[in-house]
From TrEMBL:
Residues 89-109 have a biased composition (Basic residues). Residues 1-36, 62-120 are annotated as: Disordered. Residues 23-33 have a biased composition (Low complexity). Residues 69-88, 110-120 have a biased composition (Basic and acidic residues). Residues 84-147 form the BZIP domain. GO terms for molecular function: DNA-binding transcription factor activity. This is BZIP domain-containing protein. InterPro entries: bZIP, bZIP_sf. Pfam families: bZIP_2 (PF07716).
């Protein structure tokens, strides 16, 4: 354990430590004296730690304003409601929430309607494209069939 000496106790310990004969005894005596002084001053020594007493005469770091506006500090008192007032308040809140919900749903339905129209237009365009590609495939099949028939029987065309 390391002992911390206060300045006056340190000086006393140094004076008595200069005597070579009683250096160890003087150090022990100084430490005991210092511990006794600290206990009187309010220091507590426990588990090798020191605690200083609170100095209540020190000024605060943050001081409160001298003048306080009463409007800033007074809190609004809650009104005690009876059952009927409470029910009315709850109904009013419920109506507002229901109205907000209905408006949200209305907007959602509108957006879904717009999206549905866009998807229907795209579907119609894709159906038209499928029909066009189907007719092209049929035309190419016919041409390919004609070319295939001509190449398999070349002598029949000549006679």
């Amino acid at each position: 354990q390391e002992k911390v000496l206060s300045p006056p106790a340190t000086k006393r310990a140094r004076k008595s430590a200069t005597d070579e004969d009683g250096a160890a005894a003087a150090a022990d005596a100084a430490a005991m004296e210092m511990q006794h002084e600290e206990e009187e001053e309010g220091f507590l020594i426990c588990c090798g730690r020191r605690a200083t007493p609170l100095n209540l005469e020190m000024p605060r770091k943050r001081q409160l304003p001298l003048r306080v506006d009463p409007s800033e500090t007074t809190k609004k008192k809650r009104k005690v409601m009876d059952a009927e007032e409470m029910a009315t308040r709850i109904r009013k809140q419920n109506r507002a929430a229901a109205k907000k919900y209905r408006e949200r749903m209305k907007m959602k339905r509108k957006e879904m309607g717009k999206e549905e129209e866009q998807l229907e237009e795209e579907k119609w365009r894709l159906v038209q494209q499928v029909q066009q590609l189907t007719t092209e495939v049929e035309e190419f099949k016919g041409k390919l069939l004609q070319i295939a028939l001509r190449s398999t029987f070349p002598n029949e065309d000549n006679g």
